[in-house]
Write a structure and sequence with these properties.
The protein is α/β, with parallel strands linked by helices. Helices cover 42% and strands 17% of the residues. The chain has helices at residues 12-23, 41-54, 79-85, 107-118, 131-139, 141-145, 169-173, 175-182, 193-196, 203-211, 215-234, 244-253, 299-315; strands at residues 2-8, 27-34, 62-64, 122-126, 149-153, 188-191, 200-201, 241-242, 258-263, 265-267, 277-279, 291-297. It has an eight-stranded mixed beta sheet, sandwiched between helices. Strands 7-8 form a two-stranded antiparallel ribbon. Strands 10-11 form a two-stranded antiparallel ribbon. Strand 2 (27-34), helix 2 and strand 3 (62-64) form a beta-alpha-beta unit. The longest helix has 20 residues, at 215-234. The structure holds beta-D-ribofuranose (BDR) and calcium ion (CA). Beta-D-ribofuranose binds next to helix 1, helix 7 and helix 12.
Amino acid sequence: TKKMILDLDTGIDDAMAIAYAVADPEVDLIGIVGSYGNVYVKEGGINSLKILELLGATDVPVYLGESHSLTTDHFDRMPISAQIHGENGIGQVNLPEPKRQLEAGSGVDFLIESAKKYGQNLIFVPTGPMTNLAKALEKDRDAILSIGNVTFMGGALTVEGNVNAYAEANINQDAEAANVVLTSPLKLTMVGLDVTLRTLLTRKETAQWRELNTAAGTAFADIVDYYIDAYADTNSQLDGCALHDPLAVGVAIDPSFITTLDLNMFVATDPDHYGRTIGDQARINDPETNVKVGLTVDRQRYLTAFMDHLTGLFKQ
Ligand code: BDR
Ligand code: CA
């Protein structure tokens, strides 16, 4: 089985990404690296521990990564994050304090060590800002370039951003880091708003979790209903909430959920277009490309897999 590491700013859809990875028999979730974004890095790490305990996955270590972007010295959480994910990041649901602790080592080093150990057999899925990956690339380029599969949630090519017309939230947190990653030789799959906004979950599905009458089913129904309501309040065109981060996990395991465009990209860092993920004209005729950009998604097949994974896990 392939080894998987998630890099999360846990967050509601990040929590669903954890559940998908825990439930999938084809991958072995060997660790979580924490990032900042939906919440501060420490809160996100604690949320990951709480979710893992709720799911009975108490053997997955959680490391903290970077607490702010490459170009700043601290991170200020945006008010919209509390609105969408709740003040605590997980829909204001009070999960028990975790019995386990965060790991002492750095998330960046954990990623590098795992890359050295597993190389091609490692799947890395960042669903927050890409600061940890950029740092790891700077620190040990060879190790990171040996990773078999990097599938990230972030960016937008065929639709506008969700922070502003140009920028998607994860990229917007640290466009410089994203640019380091996208312009590196790493082979990447981009699961951006192009596909995640087409992959929606509604209260019809969360009701099925609630009916299970288990701790995990009820907690996830409460957490995700908060997210669905927040979407209704802020994103009125969509019927439901977008499965951003769990779609990235699904695609990392089974790329056939999406169709992709092969492209060389860069991320704009100038103030007027900050965070824009777009084709790099300087490399437009280069036959070698390093990013597969998700453009369409087989949403029905994915949604079925998503529900099979999560419902199966919540039943236990
Ligand atoms: C992304 O931003 C975060 O708020 C979500 O967790 C997701 O990773 C969507 O733009
Ligand atoms: Ca996220």
